[in-house]
């Protein structure tokens, strides 16, 4: 038996599937390095972006192409193992490539290599049948390589997505816990967050028990609103950090599940977002005290409920924003607000109590509104004013004000 026949016997399936002799396969084996180098030369000549890659990255492409060329000969010998062999040959390539070459560019590299192989392979064929088998083989092999590359890129993207999700959860958790500003900002920067963007924290219930579905829905709505977001599902609550100006942020509430949604104050940067988070979560705990609260409701509009639930920050804000300005305005304004609230909001009764004209009461109430942003004639604002004055009296009695 000749050497050729011995090789054919060693690979009984090759003649059946590809009709290639052992001699042709040996020649391809020896020429695989030359074919790979020719492919890289073609890439440099015909792909402008490829020439801009650093030398070490172009060398990596050469090595990957050489591996693929050698794998092609193995694939020809046993096409039944095509998927296994191509996956093995490119096992580590896409993970490395994906750091600096997009999927579109990677497929372009594969296409370029296949074109070079198509041009060069006919010279290795001993017969017209072998020539046809080689051309058909490289086209099928190229398709397998393209699919393997796409699958590997998808797996790499999923891995990066999982890592980004964990990193994002760490950022949101750090904001909620008030971690060091630099650690939060550096992690957020890795996720593409603009450090100069304003931030508002929302808190509520997730729309589903499936966290990935919740994340998808929030991102879909945020993309429609062209808002950057960081989010985390923490058990029965969803925390969303939205970037950008305050206007229009209320539309994010539709991304939450049933129940109240509380928005903290809009702060100047992510470094101050812990304050917004603290107020949003405090409001979420206290909003049960206001069943008719709007959705979303600002944490600043829940100051009475937050103060009654023991939030020291809410007490401080009630004093600084309402009680203190009224006291500083003089006894007449403060006394008028107190009398108006005690009269049940009846203007004439208040005027009789103070021995003044009703128009004087109206003037003083307008002045109180200018000072505090709360209108005593509005039922909700009247409650806020009443609680603020009460908190101020208690703080003064304890020597805290």
Automatic annotation (TrEMBL):
It holds the Pfam family HTH_30. Residues 1-20 are annotated as: Disordered. Residues 178-286 form the CdaR GGDEF-like domain. Residues 334-390 form the PucR C-terminal helix-turn-helix domain. Belongs to the CdaR family. This is PucR family transcriptional regulator. The lineage of its organism: Bacteria, Bacillati, Actinomycetota, Actinomycetes, Pseudonocardiales.
């Amino acid at each position: 038996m000749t050497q050729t026949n011995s090789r054919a016997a060693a690979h009984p399936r090759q003649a059946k599937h590809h009709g290639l002799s052992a001699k042709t396969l040996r020649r391809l084996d020896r020429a695989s390095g030359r074919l790979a180098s020719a492919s890289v030369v073609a890439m440099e000549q015909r792909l402008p972006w490829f020439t801009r890659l650093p030398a070490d990255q172009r060398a990596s492409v050469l090595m990957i192409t050489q591996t693929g060329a050698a794998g092609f000969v193995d694939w020809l010998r046993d096409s039944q193992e095509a998927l296994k062999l191509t996956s093995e040959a490119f096992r580590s390539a896409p993970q490395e490539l994906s750091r600096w070459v997009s999927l579109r560019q990677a497929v372009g590299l594969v296409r370029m290599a296949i074109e070079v192989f198509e041009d060069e392979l006919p010279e290795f064929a001993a017969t017209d049948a072998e020539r046809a088998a080689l051309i058909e083989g490289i086209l099928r092999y190229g398709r397998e390589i393209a699919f393997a590359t796409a699958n590997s890129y998808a797996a790499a993207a999923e891995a990066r997505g999982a890592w980004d999700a964990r990193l994002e959860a760490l950022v949101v958790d750090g904001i909620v816990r008030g971690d060091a500003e630099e650690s939060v900002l550096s992690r957020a920067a890795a996720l593409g967050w603009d450090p100069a963007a304003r931030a508002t924290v929302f808190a509520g219930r997730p729309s589903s028990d499936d966290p990935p579905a919740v994340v998808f829905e929030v991102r879909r709505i945020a993309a429609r609103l062209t808002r950057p977001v960081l989010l985390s599902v923490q058990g029965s609550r969803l925390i969303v950090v939205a970037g950008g100006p305050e206007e229009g942020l209320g539309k994010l509430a539709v991304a939450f599940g049933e129940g109240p949604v509380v928005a903290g104050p809009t702060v100047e940067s992510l470094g101050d977002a812990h304050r917004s988070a603290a107020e949003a979560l405090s409001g979420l705990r206290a909003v049960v005290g206001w069943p008719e609260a709007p959705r979303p409701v600002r944490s600043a509009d829940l100051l009475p409920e937050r103060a009654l639930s023991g939030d020291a920050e809410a007490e401080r804000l009630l004093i600084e924003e309402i009680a203190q300005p009224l006291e500083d305005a003089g006894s007449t304004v403060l006394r008028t607000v107190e009398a108006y609230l005690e009269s049940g909001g009846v203007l004439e009764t208040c005027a009789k109590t103070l021995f003044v004209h009703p128009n004087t009461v109206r003037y003083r109430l307008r002045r109180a509104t200018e000072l505090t942003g709360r209108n005593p004639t509005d039922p909700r604002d009247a409650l806020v004013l009443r609680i603020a004055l009460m908190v101020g009296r208690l703080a003064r009695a304890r020597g805290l004000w």
